[in-house]
Amino acid sequence: MAVYAIGDVHGCLPQLLTLLEAVRFRPGRDRLLFVGDLISRGPDSLGTIRFVRDQGERAVALMGNHELRAINGLLGFPEKGFLKHLGFLTTCPERDDILDWMRQRPLVHHEPELNLRLVHAGFHSGWSLDQAMDYACRLGVILRDEATLRAFLARYPANLPEIESSDMDETARLHFAMAVMTRLRICQPDGRVVWSIPGASGGAAFKLEPDSPYRPWHALLDWPGSERIVYGHWAIAGLSRNGRFIGLDSGCVYGGKLTAMRVDHPDLPITQVSCPAYVKPE
Ligand SMILES: [Mn+2]
C-alpha cells in the first residue's frame, strides 16, 4: 500500500487523474490524503468531489476555505465568489449529500504511524499541539450539527481578529481557530495574523520577499517533536519544504502544477503534473 498526500486540486479533475496515473495509483489498495480545497475555480468541482467520495475510507479530504465557502453559501451565508465558483451546488441534485459530506471534512488529520499531521492552511504559534487539536475537535462537532453550525456561521466576524485575546468568548476563539486552520499564511513576527496585506488583494499578495516584515506561519511554530506537518492553501509559495513543514499547493488551477508526495516513503521523488491556467490568480 502507498500513501500519497496531494495538494489543492480546485476542481482540476483531469489533472488529478493524470497525476494518479503518473504515480500508478492502485484504487482499493493505495490511500490518498488531500490537503483541502478540492473544489472551486477549476473545471470540474463536482466530478472531483464524486471521485474522492467514491474512494471511501481510502481517501481523506480536509476542510479547506473553499469547502467552508461552499458550506456557508449553501446554508445562506454566501461569501464573495460563492455564486461565481460554487453557485452550481445550489441547484445540483446531490446538493444535500454534498453539503453533508463537506460538513464532515476534518480540519486536521493525524497519521500517527507516519509521524504526520495535515491541515489546510496552518496552526497558530500561540497554540500548543493539544490546543490546536482541541479546537479542531470542537469545530468538527459544530460542523456536524446543522443548527449549531448555522448559529456559529451567523456570528462569524466580518473582520477577523489578529490574535486571541483574553476577553474573547469561546465562540470568538473558535471563529479564530477555524479561520487559522483554513486561511492562515503569514504573521507579524510577534504572532499577530496578517489576514490581508494593505494595498494588495488575493493570494498573489502573499508572496514573501526576503526583505518582507512578515513571517510564514510555520516559522513561528515551535512545537516539540519531529512530526511532519503537511499543508496546502499557499499557491504563490508553491511546493515548499522547510524542515518538518511541507507545503503542497503548487497552484494547479492557475496554470501551475498538481503535486503528489509519497508520505509513507518521503525519500521517493515528489510527482507533479502541469495544469492549464483555468483562472488567473485573484
Ligand atoms: Mn485554500
Automatic annotation (TrEMBL):
Q: Which Gene3D superfamilies match?
A: 3.60.21.10
Record flagged with keyword rRNA-binding = no
Q: Name one GO molecular function term.
A: bis(5'-nucleosyl)-tetraphosphatase (symmetrical) activity
Top-level lineage group: Bacteria
Instruction: Give the EC number(s) listed in the UniProt record.
Output: 3.6.1.41
One Pfam family name from the record?
Answer: Metallophos
Instruction: Report domain Calcineurin-like phosphoesterase positions.
Output: 1-130
Q: Which residues form the signal peptide?
A: none
| Main EC class the enzyme belongs to | hydrolase
In terms of InterPro entries, this protein maps to:
Ap4A_hydrolase, Calcineurin-like_PHP, Metallo-depent_PP-like
| Protein keywords | Hydrolase
The UniProt transmembrane annotation reads none
Query: Which protein, by its recorded name, is this?
Result: Bis(5'-nucleosyl)-tetraphosphatase, symmetrical
- From which organism does this entry originate? Candidatus Magnetaquiglobus chichijimensis
Upper lineage: Bacteria, Pseudomonadati, Pseudomonadota, Magnetococcia, Magnetococcales
